[in-house]
Design brief:
Pfam families: Ribosomal_S16. The protein has 119 residues and is of the alpha+beta class. 34% of the residues lie in helices and 23% in strands. The chain has a domain at 3-80: 2-Layer Sandwich (S16 Ribosomal Protein, Chain: A). It has three helices and five strands.
């Protein structure tokens, strides 16, 4: 059974509240889970201790059993010091898209024409 440590959404519309759960990866996001490991309230300030609460003993147990944390949970565990920081290098993320590159080329061409005309 492929286990995940992930977020299950609760709360009302526009007021998210998440449970941190250990669940079978084949189950739906808000569906059946094995164990509740903690909570995450994104509406609280980032420096609040109540924002992320986790039962670290149980989280460590599930990690030892082979459960894979999702990206967001992995970041929370890194902040808590349970996991070592993973390298996240995405060099393409900062590059502009095709249309933005075309606009930049057009702007550069117009600037070059204006510079030649003023000389």
């Amino acid at each position: 059974m492929a286990m995940k440590i992930r977020l299950a959404r609760g709360g009302s519309k526009k007021r998210p509240f998440y449970r941190i759960v250990a669940a079978d990866s084949r189950m739906p996001r808000d569906g059946r889970f094995i164990e509740k490991l903690g909570t995450y309230n994104p509406l609280l300030p980032k420096d609040s201790e109540e924002r992320v609460k986790m039962n670290m003993e149980r989280v460590q147990y599930w990690l030892d059993q082979g459960a894979q944390p999702t990206d967001r949970i992995a970041r929370m565990l890194e902040a808590a010091g349970v996991r070592e920081k993973a390298d996240r290098s995405n060099p393409k993320k900062g590059t502009p898209g095709k249309k933005a590159q075309e606009r930049a080329e057009e702007k550069a061409a117009k600037a070059a024409e204006a510079a030649e005309a003023s000389e």
